[in-house]
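Model it.
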Amino acid sequence: MSALRQSFSWWCFANRGVEPGELLSGARKIGYQGVDLIDEALWPAAKANGLAISATGGHGTIESGLNRRENAARIEQELRANIAKAREWEIPILICFSGNRAGLDDEAGLESCAETLRRLAPVAADAGVVLAMELLNSKVDHADYQCDGAAWGIELCRRVDSPAFKLLYDIYHMQVMEGDIIRTIQCSHSFFAHYHTAGNPGRGQPDHSQELHYPAIYRAIAATGYGGFLSHEFLPAGNPVDALERAFNDCEQALSSVSG
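Modeled.
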């Protein structure tokens, strides 16, 4: 069995000429074990195809998130409801968002996020769920997003101080913002509960055409003893099932070159 459990983000591969059932069954035949961010209406179909729902959204929205106290009541209600769903459906990760800065300094944003997350972390822990704030780039895709660097996210983890709150380390987004991917994984992997992949620039297939050397990244993640899901979140250039197969096999080959 592979050292990494591979999954894929639904939004990247759906609605690209392959019916949902065919996409799910095709992914499972390839060897995928999970699917991220799939529509709730398709959760039964994912399960029927032997795929775990590896991560789903915990609250809305990316832009209006946990960094503002006026959002706290709404987000807490949404997270409590989604923690209950995650418990029922055995979903390990609920994705959270800091929200945009909109003039808010980093210290104020950290403390606001921490206040709400400290209240909710015990609820998530009791349900066997991890709340994972996603690291996103503010340079290309999510202008003004506050949790746009590993250091800010790690400081938030320290303030919440719970195994039920960690980070979603999105490799594409962090390459755009700060690079140094492998060293960050080696030094800070204990703060990361979930990984997303994509090439850069352009969020393409994670292969030799992109500046990120994914075989070494896959090996670095595996070397940490990581037991969660590695989810591919890139935009396929052609048939989505073919693209998923290429990504899956590239990861497997990178890991087998070490274990073999």
